[in-house]
Amino acid sequence: MSERSSFREHVTTHPEVVERFGDLHPPFDRQAAVPEANRCLYCFDAPCTTACPTHIDVPRFIKKIASGNLAGSARTILDANILGASCARACPVEVLCEGACVMHRYNKQPIQIARLQRFAMDSLHESGAPLPFEPGAETGLSVALIGAGPASLACAAELRRRGIRAHLYDAHPLPGGLNTYGVAEYKLPLVESLREIEMLSQLGVEFHFETMIDAAALAELERKHDAVFLGIGLGAIHRLGIAGEELSGVTNALDLIAGYKSGALTKVPERVVVVGAGNTAIDCATIAQRLGAERVTIVYRRTSHEMTAYPHEYEFAKNEGIEFRFLARPIETVVKDSQVTGLLCSQMKLGAPDASGRPSVEPVPGGEFLIPADQIVKAIGQQKPSLARTLNLETSGGYIAVDETFQTSIPGVFAIGDCIRSRGEASTVMAVQDGKMAAHALHARLTAPVSSGKGA
Ligand code: SF4
Question: For the whole model, what pTM was predicted?
Fold first, then answer.
């Protein structure tokens, strides 16, 4: 176990990474932020707020920027979303708040909500001011949270504001989960994720790193705490199920992203093939290109219409020069002298819709072809949370099943974030909302007056 007051001390910043992974959306300065804030119509029933899963009061925080009250603006954001800084950088705002902005109706550019949010949050961080919240009066209650990703962090912060002790346990040496280890650096730099968590930890959240939790450890935590939260995310990246998958030239999306963010990976070979067509596959492809690959190809068995990446991510990748090979399914890794030299694929064609409504795919007879590759990256989604089986929890579609208070099939054990996300897009902002709502539900449950057991 270890506890750290400053997480960023443990990170080495690599100039090469900083240079190659500059901000995708550069920050506003005050001269740019105020006019942009003044464009906002401060809509009464703002659709941008409705579209935000954490319901940040967008017109309110923007108005405070316009009036020069940056501390107040940051407080408005943090009150709804304690990870407002990372969400300002990593949220898919094109399909959330900015996508809902009324400016679209007038054929005008939507208000740049994310950049304004980042401006307010960066101003708070750079001012050196403390988090604008205090821990609540101590209740004597304590909760263990397994996994230190966004869901657990948000839950822990809300619990602390209500006087409940929060202990976070994580297998990694640093907190933040995918925010720290799994988001492309040009969207959310690792040090920014840690800076936000340092601020949040002012509430008195206690961290325990490099700690693995099994059934025996869970039982021990249940004994020591009033409740246990599982914010464990998803499992390993799915296997391709093809020959040659174990070779060193084949890696997976999570290792690639975590590798370069930690500085362990600073370059990739010339030809990289990424298998998959979600937002993580796009991240991997653009990262590989920034790490020096001359040719990066995304391989997907269906077409651009069926890919799960957001349209703006697809456009971004195309503009970056990433090649797409649709209707292609990997069938074998091609190897020479123990080195990966290519990916043999089968040409596919679309068929009738399957049970999910997506078109099925079937191989075109004789339609095999080779894509030259020195490295292959698997980015075909993560497996369902394996801890659910280990702990014998009830599941729904492979995800941990919970009731409306986030309680699992084990009383006193709750689950939040991606591990319960059986529908909709998993994201930081959804995880934050889960954590917040679960903390509110638990606080209400633990502090409810004890019933006398007598009827009315
Ligand atoms: Fe401002 Fe657009 Fe939100 Fe209206 S919808 S309050 S214009 S950001």
Answer: 0.90
- Binding site membership of 38 for ligand 1 (Cβ less than 6 Å): no
Scored b (16 or more CB within 10 A) or e, 118-156 reads bbbbbbbeeeeeebebebeeeeebbbbbbbbbbbbbbbb
Decide whether any atom of ligand 1 lies within 6 Å of the 48 Cβ.
yes
Per residue in 231-245, pLDDT (tens digit) is 998 888 999 999 889
* C-alpha 149 – ligand 1 centre gap (Å): 30
> What pLDDT digit, counting tens, does each position of 278-320 carry?
999 999 999 999 999 999 999 999 999 999 999 999 999 999 9
Atom of ligand 1 nearest to the CA of 100: 5
DSSP of 312-330:
HHHHHHHHTT-EEE-SEEE
Nearest to 281 by CA among 350, 181, 184: 184
- Report the distance separating Cα 147 and Cα 169, nearest Å: 6
Domains of the chain: residue spans and CATH: 8-127 (1.10.1060.10), 142-235+403-422+436-447 (3.50.50.60), 250-378 (3.50.50.60)
Q: Ligand 1 centre from 83 Cα, in Å?
A: 21
